[in-house]
Design a protein that fits this description.
CATH topology of chain A: Chorismate synthase, AroC fold
CATH class of chain A: Alpha Beta
CATH architecture of chain A: 4-Layer Sandwich
Shape of chain A: globular
Oligomer: homotetramer
Order of helices and strands of chain A: EEEHEEEEHHEHEHEHEEEEEH
Structural class of chain A: alpha+beta
Mean pLDDT of chain A: 93
Chain lengths: 334, 334, 334, 334
């Protein structure tokens, strides 16, 4: 059940240390210009290299294997793959019996009974988000006038962006990790996207966001912080014929449908589960709690590289809604 | 696109002031005992009557019209309907041109161009959640040993439950409204539910929750409040062979899959958009901002009645995951 | 799994002798005029009354319970139901253990283990086709310029229509039954409908047709009778810029996509399984072959009333393809 | 919309002269032994080489790129691809404006407006059936005790198999082509497969079969040839407690559900559209009918290589039904 979307359909596959990871995108209309270069900016945003990111460096060269002909989409499924090259599989062999805390090791073992590809987290690896980023690049081509503004607004409890480097430095030094909040703002979203019940815009966006490893919270508009507001304070007054509102506490969505104001949402990404500090966790071979040291290569703050992944999840949900809207939008000239 | 579920499929229909609202539930296995009485406890929890709830009182008598024979499910689609009786349709006629702030009036008008049933909020009405509650009752029959513990942990910014009545009283007196946070805890969830990408348990649960009007935030485990924790603090150590963890910051889910610890989540429900206090909003007939007074019957705190709705959304997602697991669970006796 | 359609979604429910049968249609665009009267012509075509049809007479009054407001579709799910009134349930009680030949009695008992509603064939009854007919009426509203020409071209082996009454008379007199071939021709189908793999027009049409009880063969164009033709004979030459072909051996479909020539197909409906002649079949109570006499009310030639059912199945498949085409049709003015 | 299956999901992609063709199979349970060798027998049956098959020879080496680890399925999506090597793309460039009769050239041009990959038939090429064959091999692993018996029972109007070679020889000599009927018999099918409405076994099987290019007819049991039978002749009497019937006119399916008798069906494959004989067809550049000579490499009787493709389509439908049945089969020991 690895597919999402009513019309713009995204299908993720691959394992961290297998041959490839990738995505099959179906439902992309024909006649849209696509080249490998189009993917580079977003793939670069996902890449490691900076402070707090994993030393596993991958070329992340994209292969477009079907659905594009003479530089344009054909209207057929588009297969996008990435080779896995820089893999250290020996790091992971013991985690099936001595599962890492807050990782999927334990549930994978119980669900797949030893048949899961456990190398590098297998199908649970953050490496699979490459497919989401790539699909999002295609999705954005269906959303021409929309503008994304994505940033970290909280890193490890710190909300002043000028102090983020300090937070990262400390996390790396202490071999620990930090989480954060990614805030996404999408402007110029057309009015009328979303199909409630059950495809409210919040539903489809959150569905995709929560499929990304480490995401533990999603809120729209003011979100949880609005709990102390009265209705008279929370309500967004419409101030003009375009539907602009004086405030945007609802985050650009009413009744599950975009209202033309900026779409605003926050996503909480938990601290990277892999840390260099020795931990204790149950060992299913010795049948008691044993010390565990994780020696692999990891991000001190996965939230840094998650930004573009989450942004592109939003793009995918919007692209699907835009295609659906082509069917169901009532022509204004009736 | 009013359906949700891979196997346990829920299809909502109806309008607030039409003949009926209801739900078609497909994918329910045969041979499960079902009677009208089974629905009463949860329907009662959704009912109005208490302080802060709407004076619109409906009998909410359920009609089981197909899929049940001699008191047991037949394995065929189950149609559950509720008559609408106590309707005051004249209250709503002007909102298509003078849309209520934070309601779906404006987006419905723009999306459906005057064809929407605007009476009582039409298909956007909270009355459609009757179908969710009813479907959830069936879902729970597939989850025999699971226990739900659902409560409001924050009402209008107040977290002490003994002060909730005071908050409500004040909201009613001032003709204003309040929001709140519903906390749901599900214990005895089997290990292994969830199918990532893209049907992580967080994905399917949030998809359903965000389809409920007024929901603006969903978080699992400690959620957003965990942003200041280091990985070494956040990680849940496994302490025994059953997979129990010392803490439950992940809310019972790792890698999108249930880990056997209690499923814990919080849902933010915004303050009821309808308030008795006069407001201002754009009037598309006069083409300027005009005062608006809402005279219909409404809940001062819709979050009160939303509790069972949200709980049953979780039940629906879990039921679907349980059925999928019947196919994909590897037999332990391999 | 009682739903069909990517966008125009049809969901059948009900049992022959339960309270109701009906259909939930989702994905119908808003703003389309609909009234109960619109359904009468097709419902009448399905009605019994003539020679060779069952004496079970039902009012077949349609109830539109949601999704239509002020005479127009709202863009929300449309619930259409029919009361069951003229039911003789005592006729059917023994068939779970002494199953009727060529009926679903045996498989239903084995699949649902006694929980199936066995009265009147339950969910396997031809009465459920009322929902298909009704959904087809809505589907046709999305296909404004298409013309259906549906007729029986073979009844009990007889291909001369003037001799059909004689065939029926003989079947009724002998308490036996006959099958037949329904030929459907749809003209003015737009070019470009169908989405291969896997939604070729032949695929979706046959999927729906084979869901109708008694259908055992579907062929397009010349079908099986073309097996003796050479490629040079079979190939349809295009003769003008509109894509018209000199012959139509392919039945208006190439590569799974409509080519603008009339859609032509034949459907074989087997002889009604219920006959008045005593038969023998295994009795699971006595554990031996026993004589069986079916005393209920039945059609000597169900193919007569099946015509409009099959035609409307085609309409449903076309409506879905038309909606999909709104998304994926490349604008000619590029 | 290139996917089929509720649980065993098959997703076809690729183009005839692109880099690859292949299939993404999702929903395969974990722990099933899979190696490249397993695919060879069925791939070999699809291969060209014999009389009446295309001289385009491809290695058809399968690449398993995800979802298999240490020789067993992981429960994750399985990506299977084949390189395209022996391609002569210049053969096809003029067919967009001078479309081949009975091919998809005309509809592809009208649907995709020049953006389709027209080389070698692009996505309409029979080469895409490699993915179906490969997916069918996986499907068969879920159907351990089932036996397929697939053969051509009619070639170009000839029903005596000993005369088939003569038919082929003549077709090749005259540069013409022939069609045929493939008869598939599946024995030891479990009772209870199929989920009507709308997933009757006939529906899902025909859906897949009609997605294969050239298929123009599907019939179950005696099919169309049973039109002259009376109900008293057609009905299959159950003769023992296992549900065996004296005859099998229904082809092993009643009410859309397998009844334990052999599944029997016939599939009509039209004569190969590509023939060496000069033809006439409309030229959209000169705007008149012009002679057309097809010089590419083709099968004189595509039905020969279609056998295993059609068989594996049936396997895919059965595998999906078997997985669904795991959820919905009522335990006999109730």
């Amino acid at each position: 059940m690895n597919q999402f979307g009513r019309l713009f359909q995204v299908h993720i596959f691959g394992e961290s240390h297998g041959d490839i990871v990738g995505v099959l995108v179906d439902g992309m209309p024909c006649g849209i210009k696509v080249s490998s270069e189009d993917f580079q900016p977003d793939l670069l945003r996902r890449k490691s290299g900076g402070l707090g990111t994993t030393p596993r460096l991958e070329a992340d060269e994209i292969h477009i294997s079907s659905g594009v002909f003479n530089g344009y989409t054909t209207g057929r499924p588009i297969l996008l793959t990435f080779q896995n090259q820089n893999t250290h599989s020996k790091d992971y062999s013991t985690f099936t019996t001595h599962p890492r805390p807050s990782h999927a090791d334990f549930v994978a073992e119980r669900k797949y009974r030893g048949f899961q590809d456990y190398r590098g987290g297998g199908a649970f690896s953050g490496r699979l988000t490459l497919g989401l980023v790539a699909a999002g690049v295609l999705a954005k081509k269906i959303l021409p006038d929309v503008r994304f503004d994505t940033k970290i607004t909280n890193l490890g409890g710190e909300t002043r962006s000028e102090a983020f480097e300090e937070v990262l430095k400390k996390a790396v030094e202490t071999k620990d990790s930090v989480g954060g909040i990614v805030s996404i703002r999408v402007s110029s979203v057309p009015i009328g996207l979303g199909e409630p019940y059950f495809d409210s815009l919040e539903s489809t966006i959150s569905h995709l966001l929560f499929s990304v490893g480490g995401v533990k919270g999603v809120e729209f508009g003011v979100g949880f912080s609005g709990v102390g507001m009265k209705g008279s304070e929370f309500n967004d007054r419409i101030v003009d014929s375009a539907g602009n509102t004086a405030t945007n506490h609802n985050g650009g969505i009413n009744g599950g449908i975009s209202n033309g104001n900026p779409l605003e949402l926050n996503v909480f990404v938990k601290p990277t589960a892999s840390i260099g500090i020795p931990q204790e966790t149950f060992d299913f071979q010795t049948n008691r709690i044993e010390p565990l040291t994780i020696t692999g290569r990891h991000d001190a703050a996965i939230v840094l590289r998650a930004q573009v992944v989450l942004e592109n999840c939003v793009a995918i949900a919007l692209a699907d809604a835009v295609l659906l809207n082509k069917v169901y939008r009532k022509d204004e000239s009736k």
